């Protein structure tokens, strides 16, 4: 089977713009004490928007648009790369990750004026010094949206019960997703711009697209205090989503199967849809078939 063609058939043409979804909760962080989400300690604002920077050391900001109206609102967060997200226009606060480590970030809230044109409603610069470099990939965010009561959390806890070490936990979660989930071809054909996974709904249905696979696996791993990046980029020439995981002192960014010694680029979509065949393993084992664009 030609897996470059299969990837083109399977991959989700997802937008870089995040849809409207509520802010995520905060869980315990591996090796660190639990930190509850703070609000209102450090806030930058004008009459149209507020940027709550009370949790910069934890790797995220909380933003809300207060200008009213029905125009589309976006958030742009820029350090080395510009990440663009949607923000609801109803005044509800939403949480956004700071995924590029320490340094100066520019955060803008943008209001659609006409067509594809946007005006800056508010902008500020934030100097970030993380308490731990892994924090942005241990907390929930808009792409990996869950809380302590989520089914993905209880399922991950059950799957990893009695497992010793992150590698064994990773193996249990990975095998569960790959062995039990089916690729949803109909959804891939009809998914709309701004789509974000509902991880508990995906877990219940055991069906999804690449974005769903990656989000569910990321939520499970993070809930077990295993740093995990949801990656959006390209598999060949097709837009795709997968996960990278930090285990045993390294970010695993190579190919996707566990050979009893090491893990590589975790792409559960193609291993699941390909029934772990040698052809699928060979494709995902070739790092030249993947190029990362964004990490969430």
Topology:
Elements: H1 3-10, E1 43-45, E2 49-52, E3 60-65, E4 73-78, E5 82-87, E6 94-97, E7 103-114, E8 117-128, H2 151-160, H3 165-180, E9 182-183, H4 185-190, H5 199-205, E10 207-208, H6 210-223, E11 228-235, E12 238-247, E13 250-252, H7 268-273, H8 278-285, E14 290-295
Parallel strand pairs: 9-10
Antiparallel strand pairs: 1-2, 2-3, 3-6, 4-5, 4-7, 7-8, 11-12, 11-14, 12-13
Helix pairs in contact: 2-6, 3-6, 5-6
Write up what this structure looks like.
Helices cover 25% and strands 28% of the residues. It is an alpha+beta fold and 296 residues long. The strands form four sheets. It has a four-stranded antiparallel sheet with strand order 1-2-3-6, with no helix packed on it. It has a four-stranded antiparallel sheet with strand order 5-4-7-8, with no helix packed on it. Strand 4 (73-78) and strand 5 (82-87) form a beta hairpin. Helix 2 (151-160) packs across helix 6, helix 3 runs antiparallel to helix 6 and helix 5 crosses helix 6. It is globular and about 55 Å long. Mean pLDDT is 80; it is low at 1-30 and 254-266.
Structural class: alpha+beta
What string, H for helix and E for strand, traces the elements in order?
HEEEEEEEEHHEHHEHEEEHHE
Largest sheet: 4 strands, antiparallel
Shape: globular
* Percentage beta strand: 25-35%
Radius of gyration: 19 Å
Distance between the termini: 32 Å
Question: What is the β-strand count?
Answer: 14
Sequence stretches where pLDDT stays below 50 over 5 or more residues = 1-30, 254-266
Write down the overall mean pLDDT: 80
Order of strands across the biggest sheet?
1-2-3-6
H/I helix tally: 8
Q: Give the fraction of residues assigned to helices.
A: 25-40%
């Amino acid at each position: 089977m030609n897996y470059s063609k299969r990837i083109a058939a399977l991959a989700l043409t997802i937008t870089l713009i995040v849809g409207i979804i509520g802010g995520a909760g905060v869980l315990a962080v591996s090796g660190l004490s639990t930190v509850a989400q703070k609000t209102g300690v450090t806030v930058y604002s004008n009459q149209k928007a507020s940027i709550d920077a009370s949790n910069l050391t934890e790797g995220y900001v909380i933003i809300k648009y207060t200008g009213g109206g029905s125009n589309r609102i976006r958030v742009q967060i820029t350090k080395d790369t510009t990440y663009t997200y949607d923000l609801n226009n109803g005044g509800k606060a939403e949480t956004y990750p700071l995924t590029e480590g320490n340094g100066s970030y520019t955060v803008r809230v943008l209001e659609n004026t006409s067509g594809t044109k946007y005006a800056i409603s508010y902008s500020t610069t934030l100097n970030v010094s993380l308490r731990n470099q892994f924090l942005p990939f241990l907390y929930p965010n808009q792409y990996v949206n869950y809380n302590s009561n989520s089914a993905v959390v209880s399922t991950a806890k059950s799957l990893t019960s009695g497992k010793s070490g992150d590698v064994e936990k990773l193996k249990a979660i990975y095998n569960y997703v790959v062995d039990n989930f089916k690729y949803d071809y109909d959804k891939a054909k009809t998914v709309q711009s701004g789509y974000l996974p509902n991880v508990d709904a995906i877990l219940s249905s055991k069906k999804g697209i690449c974005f769903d696979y990656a989000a569910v696996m990321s939520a499970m791993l993070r809930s077990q205090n295993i740093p995990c990046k949801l990656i959006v980029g390209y598999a060949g020439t097709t837009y795709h989503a997968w996960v990278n995981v930090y285990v045993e002192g390294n970010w695993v960014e190579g190919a996707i199967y566990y050979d009893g010694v090491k893990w590589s680029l975790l792409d559960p979509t193609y291993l699941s849809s390909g029934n772990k065949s040698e052809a699928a393993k060979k494709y995902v084992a070739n790092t030249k078939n993947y190029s990362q664009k964004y990490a969430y």
